Amino acid sequence: MKSSFTISVLLVSSMLLALPAQAEQFKVLLFTKTAGWHHDAVHEGVSAVQELGKLHDFGVFWTADAGRVMNDAELSKYQAVIFLLTTGDVLDDAQQAAFERYIRKGGGFVGVHSASDTEYGWPWYTKMVGHMFKVHPAVQTAVLQVRERNFPGMERFAPRTLFTDEWYEFGPATSSKLTYLLTVDESTYKPETTWPDRQGKGMGAFHPISWYQPYEGGRAFYTALGHQAATYRDPVFMHHLYGGIYWAATGRGFRAE
């Protein structure tokens, strides 16, 4: 016969096994396919987002294989999709159609840095991103300016703060529904640059860096920050990125004041 102690242990063990595992807040797909320039910061960025997942209790699945995840069945597992440092033409026609359906069903999109240097020939995507990359000067320190504090992840920025990045110059807005979060003060760095096939002169008094919008039933957030690997060790930037992920995945807002 089993002792009462053994029976008790078995009962407790059975009860523990029956308890449900703690559910994550939400799940995100971290997508890093490049068909053009490949940023050195990709792996640092992936590790940083995975750490965000641990800190804020959300699931992260990372891949650069569009064929594996850009379909209805796989996309339905995630509340947001992060295009982290993607470049070029990364999805075929069927994958694009699946992603459009995903957003229209309420999914979230997060674009980081060169997500705006991706899929120029896909008008639906360019409208979702909000502005497309045109050119950039050398990496420089400049002054970031907060345009809207009442959004998740914005509360740790000073009204004006020094930041070092690759300051993208963008083409005109592709959507009229953008709410701008951050701009860069062009008087604090040298925006002029000359490339073999284009020139950059800056965007003037209003040079957007981060924004968001509701989009066709879903949500889209973009930040141009994140060129350098070391940026993914900056707690203010990472909180900004988490705010965008949180909003894209849940639709929940935030008031800083």
Walk me through this protein's architecture.
The structure is a single chain. The chain is α/β, with parallel strands linked by helices. The protein is built from seven helices and 13 strands. The protein has one domain (25-250): Class I glutamine amidotransferase (GATase) domain (Rossmann fold, 3-Layer(aba) Sandwich). 28% of the residues lie in helices and 25% in strands. It has a nine-stranded mixed β-sheet with strand order 2-1-3-4-13-12-9-6-7.
Quick summary:
With 257 residues, the protein is α/β, with parallel strands linked by helices. It is built from seven helices and 13 strands.
Task: State the fourth-level CATH superfamily.
Answer: Class I glutamine amidotransferase (GATase) domain
Number of helices: 7
Low-pLDDT segments, ≥5 res: 5-20
**Can you tell me the CATH class?**
Alpha Beta
Question: How many structural domains does the protein architecture include?
Answer: 1
Q: What is the distance, rounded to the nearest whole angstrom, between the alpha carbons of the first and last residues?
A: 67 Å
Which percent band covers the strand fraction?
Answer: 15-25%
Structural class: alpha/beta
Q: Portion of residues in helices?
A: 25-40%
Can you write the helix and strand succession as a string?
HEHEHHEHEHEEEEEEEEEH
Q: Summarize the biggest pleated sheet.
A: 9 strands, mixed
- Assign the CATH architecture: 3-Layer(aba) Sandwich
Count of individual beta strands = 13
Strand order of the largest sheet: 2-1-3-4-13-12-9-6-7
Let me know the average pLDDT: 93
Rg (C-alpha, Å): 21 Å
Q: Sum up the overall morphology in one term.
A: globular
